[in-house]
Structures are given as C-alpha cells and as structure tokens.
Known about the structure:
By secondary structure, this protein is mostly beta strands.
Amino acid sequence: MLNHNTYFEGGVQSLGFERRGRRHTIGVIDAGEFHFDTEGAERMTVVSGEVGVRFARSSEWRFYPAGTAFEVEAASGFDVRAEVPVAYLCEFL
C-alpha cells in the first residue's frame, strides 16, 4: 500500500511504501530550506540533484550530490537545503 505525504505546504512530497519489512519513502524536495525531526534512524540517498544537509548539533552544511547517501540518528533532526528540486530515497533503519 502506498501513502502520499505532503510537508511544508507542498515543498516536500513523498510516497511511502514497505519493502522486506522496512519502511521507505521516495520523494522530491523543492527548492528551499526545510527542517525534519527524526524518531528513528534514517538513511537518505540522493537520487537526482544535490542537497545541503546540516545535522542536529552542527552549524556546518555538508553537500550530497546524486548517488551519495547520509544517515541521521534516531531522536534528532536535520535541515536540508536545495537550490533546485531534488529526488531522494529514505530508508527507515
């Protein structure tokens, strides 16, 4: 079963699904800056474009182009910044 998620007045949209007992979302981040809180750990893979990420407790932006991934700790958060729309795959670990 697919679940459609919309955040930030449509600035981030995703489709959620389950595969091999693990939740995933695949979606698009529009140009802009957004903050996400995490309950569980996540792995984000950039499928298209490039995203800047600032992890909780950090002031430094790190940049991830298509084909790269980053992980976010459980019970934390992160900021994302995109200059153009970015496609991503999120795996809930």
